[in-house]
Amino acid sequence: MSGVRVVAETGTRTPALVRRWVLFAAALVCSAALSTLATVPPRSETPAPPAGEASVAATSSAAPAKAGRPGRPGRPTAGPLGSRRVDVAANMGPAVATLRRRPAHTIAQRQVPPMPPPRAKVDCQVRKCVALTFDDGPVPGTARLLDILGARGVRATFFVVGLQVAAYPGLVRREFAEGHEIGNHSYTHANLDHMSGAGAGSEMGRTQQAVWRVTGKAPVLFRPPYGATDAGVAAVARRNHLAQIMWAVDPLDWHDRDAALIKRRVVQDVRRGAIILLHDIHGTTVSAVPGIIAALNRKGYVFVTVSELYRGKRLAPGRRYSQR
Q: Any idea which residues carry the catalytic annotation?
């Protein structure tokens, strides 16, 4: 009977113990909740930021990134309709604010044009190929030349001066986007064979950078101003991975500003594989181009860029080329 009495007493005590543990646990939960509420400031002390400022606040209060890994800015938070707009750039620091204050054309200069569409390859071992090349630009008149070339489906090679690239980046982008080739013609049109190696290297390197910034592609061709080159200039061109491109036909368009005379000289001196020297900085030269194209087309010539003219042949950096 003693065993029965123990079981009965245990059975009567068990519900009481359970109730005690439940009450104890509930007390702990309520205490934690009350302590959490006590740490939250009243709603009136923390107003919600207006639309546009939420992302700035999130960015400035974000935890610092781990070493070696840049942090990510917070995403913009959409605000309610009718909320006031905030100048986010002004709140993102001096660098962004400075970028915002830049003129639109300065920011647009960093836009890289798309690669030009491919066209059918021309076999210059079979066809009568020639290369039209234009020096010293771009200038505003280059736009008219591009219209002429585009209307006739002719691609040319432009040897640009770095200073002019900086002045007219949109024209260089257009040359590139329309499938023309861009070559290096120094930065200031200096006589490089009268300069030190460092000076010539600066002239070539700065133009390489100027063209790359505008087109996303650095030139592989170089034409020395005035055709003035020597072993030192060749060595600098070789270090910059640039082949030196000279010419086989020179109508002296820089000297004689006569469109009819320029056309006549080109047509009578041209031959298969020739590189033709012209200057898009002269309006008379641009006026002569339609007649040159028409006359050479009648003779069966095909117009290609310099690299297309030498397709299948490796152009060695530093070496001079004047015709295929």
A: 135, 279
